[in-house]
Specification:
The structure holds 2 protein chains of 2 kinds. Chain A is about 30% helix and about 30% strand. Chain A is of the alpha+beta class. Chain A is globular. Chain A starts with a helix and ends with a strand. In chain B, about 35% of the residues lie in helices and about 20% in strands. The longest helix of chain B has 17 residues. Chain B is elongated, with a radius of gyration of 23 Å. The mean pLDDT of chain B is about 90. Classes of the chains: A alpha+beta, B alpha/beta. Chains A and B meet through α1, β1 and β5 of A and α1, β1 and β5 of B.
Chain lengths: ~100, ~250
């Protein structure tokens, strides 16, 4: 987890009731680079940082928004081809697990 | 999760250099109420997002091994069986800070190094005492531009372990000043440009005046950059950044 993310969570405390931290917790590929990448999603759809963009990021945001409404944490998984992964700037394809954590502010 | 955990985590990162976070993202059977629980760990401290679960979390930390956690470099998802029964998936990660790239000297090579480094996640600082060299036009991508005498900057500068220092000033005297202040510091990388003649002069002075040990002199990356036969300033910049990436990504084992 990057310090910038921690600082941003604290800074936003007056703006929202809760927010979501989405983190790639597992990327079964030959590169460890993607694991640990995280972003924040706020209830109004705004985001902070990125895990690479693309349709996968949109799916993550949508899932996070649903979870935020319920105030719950959850997970989402993808299977990316090498090509799909490259398009969003990830090093390799394969199975990717994202943990979405609800944080009450 | 609540804000309090992150407030405490933030305080911990101010106090300690190495902080690790664990999150139970899946737990089965009797341990299922551990899901979503987090803890933060340093060599000396440990706190939990939910103190009521202290006993169970301690068991999990023990199963992974505290010593293993506080030595990890990359985030990792681990699957454990606690007491041969309940399966637990735990995500462990170090708290990271963006690496700082500090360029002493704002000449042509610095310009190219800064441009290439901006494609990565470096926070870039450029220092030079010549205002006409250190400016937004020449370094639009840099995070901090400092117009100061090196010696004055060095009085305030404290190297951190995530720092990458590139010494490319315009003269031997300045290179010596910067190197004598940064050699043996916490910085992960110290590199200095120069011909073998210049390197010898600077090193001799460090040996004689500052009584610097040979092992420390060896830790300086000089001549700077990976050997790729670079000729132009941009090519030299590629070699420097390549070396920095190599050092950054090297495993300690």
């Amino acid at each position: 987890m990057n310090k910038r993310i921690i600082e941003k969570i604290i800074k936003t405390k007056d703006e929202y009731d809760n927010l979501a931290v989405a983190t790639i917790v597992d990327a079964k590929s030959s590169s460890p680079r993607d694991t640990g990448t995280s972003m924040l999603i706020f209830p109004d759809g705004k985001t902070y940082s990125t895990i690479g963009g693309g349709s996968q990021e949109k799916d993550i945001i949508n899932k996070a928004l649903k979870l935020l409404k319920k105030g719950k944490s959850g997970r989402i998984s993808f299977n990316l081809t090498r090509k799909e992964a490259a398009q969003i700037g990830w090093v390799c394809g394969g199975d990717i697990d994202v943990y979405i954590e609800n944080v009450w502010l | 999760m609540d804000l309090e955990f992150y407030n405490n985590l933030n305080k911990l990162t101010e106090e300690y250099k190495d902080v690790y976070v664990g999150t139970i993202i899946e737990a089965e059977g009797e341990l299922s109420d551990l899901e979503e629980i987090k803890f933060a760990l340093t060599a000396k401290e440990l706190f939990y997002s939910d103190l009521d679960k202290k006993k169970e979390i301690d068991k999990i930390i023990k199963a992974v091994g505290k010593e293993k956690i506080i030595k990890m470099h990359n985030p990792e998802l681990k699957e454990l069986k606690i007491e041969d029964e309940s399966k637990v998936r735990i995500y462990l990660e170090p708290v990271t800070d963006n690496p700082r790239l500090i360029l002493f000297g704002a000449g042509h090579i610095a310009n190219s190094v800064s441009k290439i480094a901006s494609l990565m996640d470096f926070q870039i600082t450029v220092i030079d005492d010549r205002e006409e060299f250190v400016n937004k036009d020449r370094f639009p991508e840099a995070d901090h531009l400092v117009v100061k005498k090196y010696i004055d900057y060095l009085k305030e500068y404290q190297a951190e372990k995530n720092d990458y220092i590139v010494i490319i000033t315009r003269g031997h005297q300045f290179d010596y000043e910067v190197l004598s202040h940064t050699i043996g510091s916490k910085a992960k990388y110290v590199g200095m440009i120069g011909s073998s003649k210049k390197i010898k002069e600077v090193f001799d002075r460090l040996r004689e005046v500052d009584e610097v040990e040979e092992s420390l002199l060896k830790s300086v990356h000089t001549p700077i950059g990976l050997e790729i036969g670079a000729e132009t300033t941009s090519e030299i910049a590629v070699a420097i950044i390549a070396e920095i990436v190599k050092v950054r990504r090297e495993k300690d084992e």
